[in-house]
């Protein structure tokens, strides 16, 4: 099963790529489909592509719900 998950942008690399925090792990993602990204923004990530922006509250609630459902591994110390 493939899931789209909220991730936070940690670094903008260029117009089409960024580094995002995925469960505490930094990963390069493609951001070509989303305009005007800034460090700290949250996006929905699916198979390496940012699909859309979402606000922090919505991102945190989604991550909380996914964790409660057992869909995320606990990567926090």
TrEMBL record:
**Residues passing through the membrane, by range:** none
Q: Which GO terms describe its molecular function?
A: carbon dioxide binding; iron ion binding
Q: What range does the record give for the signal peptide?
A: none
Which InterPro entries does the entry link to? Hydgase_assmbl_chp_CS (IPR019812), Hydrogenase_HupF/HypC (IPR001109)
Tell me which Gene Ontology terms the entry assigns under biological process.
protein maturation
Which SUPFAM superfamilies does its entry note?
A: HupF/HypC-like (SSF159127)
Question: What Pfam families does UniProt report for this protein, alphabetically?
Answer: HupF_HypC
Checking Gene3D superfamilies in the record gives: 2.30.30.140
| Stored NCBIfam families | hypC_hupF (TIGR00074)
- Which family does this protein fall into? Belongs to the HupF/HypC family.
Question: What is the protein named?
Answer: HypC/HybG/HupF family hydrogenase formation chaperone
Q: Which organism is it from?
A: Pseudohalioglobus sediminis
What is the phylogenetic placement of the source species in the record? Answer: Bacteria, Pseudomonadati, Pseudomonadota, Gammaproteobacteria, Cellvibrionales
């Amino acid at each position: 099963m493939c899931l789209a998950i909220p991730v936070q942008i940690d670094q903008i690399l260029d117009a089409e790529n960024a580094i995002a925090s995925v469960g505490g792990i930094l990963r390069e993602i493609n951001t070509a489909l989303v305009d005007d990204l800034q460090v700290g923004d949250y996006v929905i990530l699916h198979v390496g592509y940012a699909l859309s922006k979402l606000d922090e509250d919505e991102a945190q609630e989604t991550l909380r719900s996914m964790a409660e459902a057992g869909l995320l591994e606990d990567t926090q110390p």
